[in-house]
Amino acid sequence: MMETQEQRYVAMSIDPKVTRVEVEVFTWDVKGMGRSPSGHRVYDPADTRTRSGTAVKVYTDAGVVGEYVQGYGLPTRPNPEEIASIGRWLIGRSALEREPVYERFRNLRHSYGTVDIVLWDVAAKLMEVPIYRLLGGYRRRLPAYASTVFGANSGPLSTPESYADFAEQCYELGYRAYKIHPYPWEDIQTHIDTVLAVGKRVGGKMDLMLDSICLYRTFADAVKVGKACDEAGFYWYEDPYSDGGVTPFSHEKLRELIRTPLLQGEKTHSLQERMALVLAKATDFVRGEVAGEGITGTLKMAHAAESVGLDIELHGAGPAQRHTMAALRNSNYYEVSVVHPDLRDLEPPVYKEGYESGLDGCKDGYVMVPEGPGLGVVYDWDYIGSHSQGKIVVSA
Question: Domains of the chain by range and CATH?
Fold first, then answer.
């Protein structure tokens, strides 16, 4: 025990300089992922989609190597050339000074966010603690919700009743919260029927959410679905309609007409834009985007929300999201995204030694925060290398 403490005192006196940055793009196949006629990702058992991920290593002269792999296919991907550009700026600089990186590169969003997460991995590994402890440490288990894919043309998640069926399956798996990403049906009534069917089946047993991914074309349609959420007692209503979730005035009006709390902010691109929604009373919960704004930017948003008494809900899944949420008091649910009865995990098989993602990674309604140093996960670099589409190396 004494030796470990001495090692930590030594670590505290070290200022690790960045010596090398590696950025590698790799691919993996997802069987069952297709596209709807409108272009949305939906379940299709006859289709297989090739997804791409980004793996980054930051080497330091202290011998500590930061690692992060962003696998889940978010709408915006990190740009390898942008990451390499940030890497060139980092060479010779302290890996612990994250604030100048935020100030200089935050507008690059997912590219910046990826680098920021790696730098937090370096800092926590240097101290031999998990990131969430370095951030303050509030909890070790995170309540989780099952977040569906955008439905299907047939079979599970193709009808209102099949969404309710899957909600019951998730309840049996231990989940106590469930979010609908509806199939992009043209008629608004099917969306309403889905909300009501799920509410009738599991309302009162599960916290229910609707993320309509800005599908609804008019304010009137958004109000109609919102009133259905009221009737079914939904927990939140996310990104209602096609203004993209960025118009404060109309969402403040929507809040006047429905009771279900709104969750906004995913479609905005900065702390300032999210706070503009908050201060305009255009949202009740605020989105946090760890993949986009990194841990540093997400903490800023979480503390800003806390200052006005609001909660932040983090978008997407992964070890970085788990560590960030584990350090926050004002956050309610971890998103297990995106899942389907026959498509249980979109993550690439890059995790070793026990990290569980996807639908079956939730136990008794919770997911665990990795306890190893840094992000606390061990990546399968052999798999990444064997599926590589190219690597950029930046060094002194």
Answer: 2-128+380-395 (3.30.390.10), 134-368 (3.20.20.120)
